Structure of GNAT family N-acetyltransferase:
Amino acid sequence: MNEYDLVKINSSQKNGFISAWEAAFNRKLASEVYEWIFDNRNIIYAFIQEGEIVAGYCLYPVSCVWQGLPATALLCNNVFVCPGHQGKHLFVKISKASLNDAHENNYGAIAYGVPNVLALPGHKRVGWGDQDKIGFLEKKVFRVNKRQKNEWFFGQLSEPDRSGLAECSKKASKEREFSIVKDRDFVRWRYESKPGVKYWFGIVRKKKEVVAYCVCKFFGEKSALHIIDLDGTDKDALASLLEDVEAIPEGFKLINVWSTTIHRSLFLSNAYDDSEDGDNFIAFNVSDLKPVYFGQNINFCLGDNDVY
């Protein structure tokens, strides 16, 4: 028997996993947040020693385009080692064991994550490819009375709008090196059911077909509006939505978006500038257990992570 047994956590074991997570991070979240992130889609691994969870690792499957083809990506959304078991290289051990299991079970072709500065060295020791830091493109705005040209919704989408957004994302993502596809399940999970958060949705249709969409979130603490997601197949429609963003009825003084958007040139042409802020970005080829280093033809946005 191995010193640590790798198990996949089932519904009856989730409370124990959550207790271990709380001990590792010394914090507690609302029950609805645990239900959201540790749902039945999340692939939840744990190291067990003598009946006790000592480390955890989570991979959330989402649809994507990878090297121009439809695939499944795995968002690395949680890694932890419990107090009393740190200093035993468990971060690296559970990471390798979990990724090997995902490889053997064909759970996904590629994994990605946005780790904090403390976790990054551990991921690099596992063999993840460390990309250039993700910066922000930002624009300071002075509010004027503007009218939006397109349809905007707050909080929830209708089923036709949800399906239209999903189909638009699928078409826009074709032939990219890497892009998360916002299918209906993703939209429901990430944009419509995250506890305590409501998003603004902008949609442009042409001949009843959604050709561009935008998702935004107001961050009151910094008087900022995050463009969580902006994508589509029609350049004019994308530009129109970006103009609409400034008329969202929230008290923001700054608009920002991750610099890894494939529409970077559109933002630059609309007076957005690079900022000094940056997030880590890592990727791993689950199919052959090797690091991934992206080129330029990727679309990666705030919505592709679970945090914002």
In short: The chain has eight helices and 17 strands.
